[in-house]
Amino acid sequence: LMIRRPPRSTLSSSSAASDVYKRQYVYSSDVKTRNKFRSTASHNTVMENGYEQNKLGMNVFELANDCRVTITKFDSNTFGAYHDGFIIKGGHQHHRSFRLENSGLIIEDSIDSDEPLRAFFHFGPGIKINEKDSKFSIYANDQHVINLTFNHVIDASVDPYDYSPGYGELMECNKLTVSFKKHLQTSFVLN
């Protein structure tokens, strides 16, 4: 399950969503780059064994509908669902839940697979990520705003990615890439 960009009407230049979710580099002039921005690895989600959740083709205005989502839980503090987008490629269902707690947000990801699994967390311009003892501190405008911790991690790294603040524009920002097996718990705790 991807955390998708909210509708344009809700975005302002000062909103966190507008910073993290703008991936509009080009629409048709460069199919390879356009598909990179549409890929699973360019979203805040999990990837199994390099599989795309939906097939990316040469028609940049079309996206295969490989990924069917089923909601498993929805109440006042929990949302859970799974998708089957990896199955037709030889993979497994991806289960994801979001749970609000007093301390923050907990995201649980699970895929019953022995294949390599990676989770991606993209951050917008001006966001800095510091790692100490497998805990990640997130800074915005040099102010510590949130801590991220992961359970069941094999490896985690801060990597660059291409962010598009506008059509035809690119700038380098940071993402966390987290490798895990079968289950990942991510905790976002406000500072």
| Residues in helices, as a percent range | under 10%
Q: What would the average pLDDT be, to the nearest integer?
A: 85
How many runs of DSSP E, i.e. beta strands?
10
* Terminal CA distance: 26 Å
Return the structural class.
mainly beta
Query: How much of the residues is beta strand, in percent?
Result: over 45%
**What kind of sheet is the major sheet?**
10 strands, antiparallel
Shape: globular
Computed over alpha carbons, the radius of gyration is 17 Å
Low-confidence stretches: 1-23
Order of helices and strands: HHEEEEEEEEEE
The total of helices stands at 2
Write structural notes for this entry:
With 191 residues, the protein is mainly beta. The N terminus is likely disordered. Strands 1, 2, 3, 4, 5, 6, 7, 8, 9 and 10 form a ten-stranded antiparallel beta sheet that branches. It contains two helices and ten strands; from the N terminus they run H-H-E-E-E-E-E-E-E-E-E-E. The protein starts with 15 loop residues before the first helix and ends with a strand. The longest helix has 8 residues. It is 7% helix and 47% strand. The chain is globular, with a radius of gyration of 17 Å.
